[in-house]
């Protein structure tokens, strides 16, 4: 087992510690952002020609479509109509124009399946701005929602929760990121140790095989030489004992036992 070797455990610990520190410092250099979250419900009015299931599915489809609508430049422009919101935050310094990419990085949307509920999270370095943008998103949905869904009075958009803004920065989550770094490092360390151990085992098996082959070749060579000498002596009157052969066989067996 790779965990029985103290060197392997040290390698895993060092890699895990290094990855945890890397994730910690990377997170520390990210811009802290506050989070303001709320949720809205899309309701399809049940007409005489529409059953409950169809109305529910229709509301879900409207909720899904608004996930794309809110990310659009049209919706962002409506948000920025509020004079209290800092527009410069969303301006790309290279082009000096409003950046949709910055807007997409500032908002997170989640549809709750089969409910017609849309959860909205706003992220901003300034806590007050995060709350202002959240409120403006709700106002825009309630006031101009019909412009986008086209359902007129048959579709209602109801706020379920007023914006709730975090007291401390919610992004990045440094403790969580550090824990993920530690887990990643441990997994990488285990893989490295396993591959290293597997490679060492293969090398050891090759060395053992080479030793056995070498000893076997020497044994066969000496046995052949002794047999040839024995054959020559047997042609005469003197037949010596096979002491040399016995000695070689004993040495060969001893080498095999030591492997």
Question: Keywords, please?
Answer:
60% helix; 7 helices; alpha+beta; single chain; four-stranded antiparallel beta sheet; Alpha-Beta Plaits; 2 domains; 259 residues; 15% strand; 6 strands; two-stranded antiparallel ribbon
Describe the structure.
The chain has 259 residues and is an alpha+beta fold. The protein is 60% helix and 15% strand. The protein has two domains: 141 residues, EIF_2_alpha (Alpha-Beta Plaits, 2-Layer Sandwich); 84 residues. A four-stranded antiparallel sheet has the order 4-5-1-6. A hairpin with a 4-residue loop joins strand 4 and strand 5. The two termini are 21 Å apart. The model has no long low-confidence stretch (mean pLDDT 77).
CATH architecture group name of the largest domain = 2-Layer Sandwich
Count the E strands: 6
Listing every helix as H and every strand as E from the N terminus to the C terminus, the arrangement reads: HEHHEEHEEHEHH
Strand content: 15-25%
Record the strand order, biggest sheet.
Answer: 4-5-1-6
Structure class: alpha+beta
CATH 4th-level superfamily of the largest domain = EIF_2_alpha
- DSSP helix count? 7
Radius of gyration equals 39 Å
Produce a short descriptive summary.
Helix content is 60%, strand content 15%. The chain is an alpha+beta fold.
How is this fold's topology laid out?
Layout: H1 6-28, E1 34-44, H2 52-70, H3 73-79, E2 91-92, E3 97-98, H4 100-106, E4 107-112, E5 117-124, H5 127-149, E6 155-165, H6 174-234, H7 243-258
Antiparallel strand pairs: 1-5, 1-6, 2-3, 4-5
């Amino acid at each position: 087992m790779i965990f029985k070797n103290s060197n392997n455990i040290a390698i895993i610990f060092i890699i895990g510690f290094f990855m945890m520190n890397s994730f910690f410092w990377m997170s520390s250099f990210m811009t802290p952002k506050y989070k303001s979250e709320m949720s809205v419900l899309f309701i399809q009015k049940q007409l005489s020609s529409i059953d409950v299931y169809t109305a529910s599915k229709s509301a879900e489809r409207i909720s899904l479509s608004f996930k794309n609508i809110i990310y659009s430049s049209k919706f962002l422009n409506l948000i920025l109509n509020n004079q209290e919101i800092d527009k410069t935050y969303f301006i790309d310094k290279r082009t000096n124009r409003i950046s949709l990419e910055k807007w997409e990085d500032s908002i997170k949307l989640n549809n709750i399946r089969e409910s017609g509920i849309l959860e909205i999270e706003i992220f901003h370095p300034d806590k007050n701005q995060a709350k202002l943008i959240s409120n403006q998103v709700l106002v825009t949905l309630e006031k101009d929602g019909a412009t986008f869904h086209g359902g007129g009075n048959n579709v209602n958009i109801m706020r379920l929760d007023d914006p709730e803004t975090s007291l401390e920065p919610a992004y990045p989550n440094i403790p969580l990121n550090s824990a993920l770094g530690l887990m990643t490092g441990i997994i990488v360390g285990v893989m490295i140790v396993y591959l290293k151990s597997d490679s060492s085992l293969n090398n050891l098996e090759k060395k053992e095989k080479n030793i056995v082959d070498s000893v076997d070749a020497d044994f066969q060579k000496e046995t052949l030489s002794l047999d040839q000498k024995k054959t020559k002596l047997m042609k005469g009157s003197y037949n010596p004992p096979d002491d040399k052969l016995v000695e070689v066989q004993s040495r060969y067996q001893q080498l095999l036992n030591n492997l």
